[in-house]
Amino acid sequence: MPEIAMKDLERQLKANKPSRVYLIYGTEVYLKQQAIDLLKKRCIPEVLPEFNYQRLDGTREPITVLMDAVEQFPMMADRRCVLLEDFDIARAPESSISILIDTIKRVPDSCVLIIWQNDDVTTEKNARMKKVAETCKKYGSVMKCLPPRPSDTARMLCDSAERLGLRMAMPEAYYMMELCGADLTNLLSELEKLSAAVGRKPITREAIDTYCTRSVDADVYRISRCILEGRSDEAFKLTRRLLVQKNSPVSIFTIMTGSFIDLYRAKALARNSGTAAELAEVFPGDYKGRGFRAENAMRDQSKFGAHQLRRYIDLLFEAELKLKGGRSDKEICLEQLIARLCMVQREGKK
Questions:
Q1: Which ranges of the chain have pLDDT less than 70?
Q2: How many domains are contained in the chain?
Q3: Which of 113, 117, 158 shows the shortest CA–CA distance to 24?
Q4: How far is residue 24's CA from residue 50's CA, in Å, rounded to a whole number?
Q5: Positive or negative, the Cα torsion across 97, 98, 102, 105?
Q6: For 220, what's the count of Cα atoms within 13 Å in the CB-facing half-sphere?
Q7: What domain range includes position 277?
Q8: How far apart are alpha carbons 81 and 69 in whole angstroms?
Q9: What one-character-per-residue DSSP string does 305-335 give?
């Protein structure tokens, strides 16, 4: 069976036709936890769960224990459930991988084996993980949990708000993501805070500003966006607020450069008809789990000329030398950089 998504998993379990084996892995922690919770809810029998459910700690239990666990008969139930958590597939010796693969092939119909990878190892970069994933696809189901696209995250926020008895429109969902960052676990936690604060009233931007905790990364990316959109006053206000809050000028600079580098890379790739997926593939270290950055850059790069983007990069390089190597006042250096970036933006509009 090919890789499945959350909706496929829900469909399988609703029809009471679970796969014998599930491999749950990827970089999105919230979606992995959601999948595991759903599997445990539907696959652990209500009758004698202490006998029909077994959790194995992959960091401590020898892999040989797994074979015995899956071959045990369920007690007064149709099936039993075995959860193997955090077995280090990427670094395990070949002998252990062979035992794991042999066990996957031999899981009986009376058992559901769930292999849960909490780390973010991928099949693309690890041969052992790829081998295990291919076996799981053949004998069961594989679910790769990646951060959703911004539009999907916004819809998820609106749906979650509705379940909490709140009313949230898509523009407010996007604004909340802009303010708090894209991490799903954090966003849903902030949504629960909003629920307690606003009750049944519609969620407004004012409520989000008042009750939600701002992400430093999100604020810094807003500075970059303000510069690129010509809102220099707002860029300076955000910078001053972050500095007053004792955020390091070097840290602010490091995060801020990301937006400009994204655009420069996207512009270069767009000249050869490249896509956001290709951008993320070329620079996996920067876009792993943050594919929305690549999508945004490919969407926005057409608004800027190549010369303008090169000027931004030149100014960032000069500022980096001063911030990280010189004895000059780092706060003044950062604010001077923002002023120069804003000047380049204004010149680019002429």
A1: 1, 121-124, 288-289, 326, 349-350
A2: 3
A3: 117
A4: 23
A5: positive
A6: 20
A7: 216-349
A8: 9
A9: -HHHHHHHHHHHHHHHHHHHHS-S-HHHHHH
